[in-house]
Amino acid sequence: MQKYTASARFYDLISAEWPVYRRGRAAGMALLDLTVGDTVVDLGCGTGLNFPWLWRQIGPSGRVIGIDRSPDMLAQAARRIARHRPGSADQLIRSDCADVDFAAIDTGEHGPVRAVVATYALSLMPDPHSVLQRVCAQLPDAAVLVVDMAQPVGRGPLGTALTRWVGAPLARAACRAGGADITARPWLHLHTLAPDHRDVEVCGGHIHACVGRSPSS
Ligand SMILES: C[S@@+](CC[C@H](N)C(=O)[O-])C[C@H]1O[C@@H](n2cnc3c(N)ncnc32)[C@H](O)[C@@H]1O
Questions:
Q1: What pLDDT does 50 receive?
Q2: Cα(45) to centroid of ligand 1, in Å?
Q3: Which atom of ligand 1 is nearest to the CA of 126?
């Protein structure tokens, strides 16, 4: 948690969002099929970089519930909501995702949770499988999106050389700096939990997006 305390105020600037990680976010969000008014849970929401993408799909009547264990990251997320959606039903919960009772999330008049997203977050968690398992067991028929990092592989002779000498060391350094396990490949858990999953890769295989649907109850 230490990593996302002092740096929280600068996270959006130092996280390489524009050159790299925005591309994975865009690819992942394009896999979601949300409608106006939907409720979406954002696991390890951080400063809320997903929120504008989700807000565009769910509209003013929709609701984002962001969960994060870092109070400093949540403070930035709260600022984002206050700036862009004052008075909305969006909600932030401070918790370790491993401890959340998803079935108990109060969606009020907003209806059931339609989607759960986890971008660049599950690879920081010690047991991503159990988190996804709980999500799938407790939130039936929800779209589950995982966007996360892996060792890039590159494409073609030039791409492979560039990846090996430049991309791979940079990717490893970025994951180390953020406390992520580049070998975790958390979307693979979704492959077993949601058999109808769809996947895309961007940035030479450094970023992987996978969406699946939790089983109906
Ligand atoms: C690399 S940041 C990604 C933030 C955001 N999802 C994004 O796409 O920009 C990882 C976030 O996951 C949070 N996190 C890590 N482990 C967590 C856990 N077990 N429970 C809740 N949040 C966690 C961190 O506090 C941090 O805000």
A1: 98
A2: 6
A3: 19
How far is the CA of 167 from the CAs of 78, 142, 206, in angstroms?
34, 34, 9
Measure 65 CA to ligand 1 centroid, in angstroms.
14
Lowest mean pLDDT among 88-97, 154-163, 188-197: 154-163
User: What is the side-by-side strand order in the sheet with 39-43?
Assistant: 91-94, 63-68, 39-43, 113-119, 143-149, 207-213, 198-202
Domains of the chain: 3-151+182-213 (3.40.50.150)
The DSSP secondary structure of 55-108, one letter per residue, reads HHHH-TT-EEEEEES-HHHHHHHHHHHHHH-TT-S-EEEES-GGG--GGG---G
Ligand 1 in contact with 115 (CB < 6 A)? no
Residue 143 has pLDDT above 60, yes or no: yes
Q: How far is CA 52 from CA 74, 84, 85, in A?
A: 15, 9, 10
For the Cβ of 39 lying below 6 angstroms from any atom of ligand 1, the answer is no
Q: In testing the pocket of ligand 1, which one of 1, 2, 3, 4 has its CB within 8 Å of the most ligand atoms?
A: 4
Closest ligand 1 atom to residue 97 Cα is 20
Is pTM, for the whole model, over 0.90? yes
Question: What would the pLDDT profile of 75-124 be if each residue is shown by its tens digit?
Answer: 999 999 999 999 999 999 999 999 999 999 877 788 899 999 999 999 99
